[in-house]
Structure formats: C-alpha cells, structure tokens
Amino acid sequence: MGLLTSTINVIGSLTNFGLGTSAVKDISVENASEDKQRISTIVTVFHRLVWITGTFGSLLALVLSPWLSQLTFGNNDYTLAIGWISITLLFNQLSKGELVILQGIRKLKLLAKANLLGSSLGLLVTLPMYYYWGIDGIVPGIIGSSLVTLLAAVFYSRKVTIKRIKISYSGTIEEGRNMLQMGFMISLSSFLSIGASYIVRIFISHKGGVEEVGLYNAGFAIINTYVGLIFAAMGTDYYPRLSAVAYDNKLCRQTINQQAEIGILILAPILVIFLIFINWVVIILYSKQFIAVNDMIYWATLGMFFKTASWSISYVFLAKGASKLFFWNELIANIYVMGFNIIGYYFFGLIGLGISFTLSFLIYLVQVFIVSKIKYEFSFDKEFINIFIFQFGLGLLGFLAINYLIPSYAYFAGALLVLVSGWFSFKELHKRINIKQLLRGILKNKK
Description:
The protein is an all-alpha fold and about 450 residues long. Helices cover about 85% and strands about 0% of the residues.
C-alpha cells in the first residue's frame, strides 16, 4: 500500500500545480478585503483549474502505469492496480478544490466537519475491504476512501454560497496565471520531496525488502500522520492568517512566534508521551511485529521539536508569494534529507532513518531561520526560546530515560516528565488563550 500510494503521489505532486496551497493565499487575501466579486472570480477560475489539472494527472498516471510498475516493483504485475488508482488523482484534486475554498474564507468549522466526515466514511468503506480481502482490498480501498472524501468535501462546501460568474477562456488564463506560477513552484517542490521519499522507499525495498518498507511506513505514519494531525489542524488557520499580514514584516514575525509557541506547547507533552510509551503505542496501533521501529521513532520524536519550530517559519515564503525562494529552499533541503536517509539506512538500518530525520530538521531549522532573517528581518522572541529549551530538555531527558534506565525506573521517570511537560504547557497556553473560558464556551454551546 505504501509503495502504491507513494508511486501515484509522485505523479500527483507534479500535476496538481500546487493549487491547494497557492489558491489559499489568493482567496484569503481577497476574503480579508471583503471583495465578494474578486472572491467569486478567483473561486470560479480555481474550480476550472482543479478539473483540468486533476484530469491531466489521472490520464498521465494511467499512460505511465506500466513504467511505474516496473520502476517500483521490478515487474509489470501492478500495471492494472496503478491504472485503477490513477482516478484518485482527479478525486483528490477535486476534494482539495472544495476544501481550499473553506480554508481560504476561514469557514474552519465546516472544513473540520468535512475532514471528519470524509475520514470517518473512509474508515467505514475501507475497513471491511481490508478485513475480507486483505492485500486484494488495497486498490478498491484507496479508490473508495478517495471518493467518499470528495463527497464529504462537496457536501460541506455547498453550504457556503459563493456566486459563480461567467469568465472567458482568456480571462481564466489571465486570472489564473499568478496562481499557476506560484503553484507550479510549490508543485515542483512537492514533487521533489515526494520523489525523494519515493527513492528512499525503493532503496529500502531493494536493500532490506518490502517488509522493511512496511516498518518504515508504519514508524513514520505514527510520527508524520498521528502527530502531524496537530500540524494540519494548526496550518488550516495559520497559513491564511499569515497571508493576511504578509505585507508587514513586524506582524509576520509576531504571528510566526505566536504560532511556534502554541505549536511547541501543544506538541511537547504528546512527544514526551511517545518517547516514554511508544512500545505500547506501536502495539496498540499495529502489533508486536512492528516494535522493531521503536528505536527509529525515539530519534524521530526528538526531531519533531525542530520540525515544529522550522514549520512555523517556512510558511512565510508562501505567505509572501516568494515562490522561487520557497522552491530553492525546499530543493536544498530535499537533497540533504534524501542523502541522510540513504546513508542512515545503509549503515544503521531503521534507526539510521530516525537519526537522519532529527539531523535533517535541525539543519532545516537553521536554514529557514537564516534565510527568513536575511530576507524578512525575522527573529525568535525570547519567550519562545525559553519555552523551546524547557520542553526540548524534558524530551531529551525522556529519550535518555527510556534508553538507559531499566523499564520500571524509565516509566516512573517518564511519567513525571509527562506531568511536568503537560503542566507547563497548560499554564503557558492558559496565559495565551484562557483555556478555562474556552472550555466553558464549548460546554455552553453543546448545551
């Protein structure tokens, strides 16, 4: 499943023209100005572009399916599977087209409901397929999940009334030029990132076997998917908000620091829990057969601290529309990330991938910090630095405890670290967003 989805995602990353990102910026800027005519124009053009790019991506993947099967699996046995899955590129692009509109105009409750419904229906559709058909259920499962996600996105986006206007072909090209230009650089960067990950998976498959690819996918699914949910949730509001103040470096710096602080405060207790109890997390989510990824996850969890800080900064390139700078920044990062991954796995196996993850994001943090400081006068506030040092210190202590103490002492020390990290985060978050009042408001709305 990991090899099939990464194969099709390589084509999707190149043909989607980064519209899911570039359009958010354009829509959010016009939404801030409250110009309904401009919003209608951009949405109309955007809808046309997602149909064109989605159809193109599906057809290209279909035509290339024999070559992709040979490249990925070393034979043509999966040509038909890749051909069927190619339709998901159209479904995914159309889904993105609906969800991006909700994100751009900041209808975040509807966006959350659409994602929740899509994920829930996807689970209900795919679970019986995997249960009864096993590996044979992978292809229909991927297609079914993509289709119900699209239906959920359409259902909720239709709750927002945006007037569709008539616009000529030449007008579509004119209005969509900036969106496509910026989107193409984003798409190219995404292609390189997914392509690099694809190469790493193929390298692992040839050197360690398909089972090792499964372990690699499982380990980083825990880190990048389950923990990444927090990034996705924060980014949904953060990117449009940063885009709205992109004209002012001082406001940008303030917004980035606020987001970085919130990100570390929310993620740190979760990461400490992962460090201490990852063995049980892996067994619950997968099985005892997957505990071989534990050491890889220990290292990668430390890297998530650096990823949180760098993630907050990296959005500034997109918010300011600096597509070329964004591309070169990501190109350089992808080169050393892929190099570290291959070298790490070659010499140290799965644990080497965890080490390379942490090293890569440490270097990436330094990189984006220096570039943004030079270009946009960015700097971290003292408050963020203090929060980061404290929470990362707790994470490092958890890493040392689980690796060098006997289990009973490690769990006891780890539990204390979790409590300290959680208490500190709650205290600091309460200063910023008044958690008690927020919870009372939620409870009141439910009643």
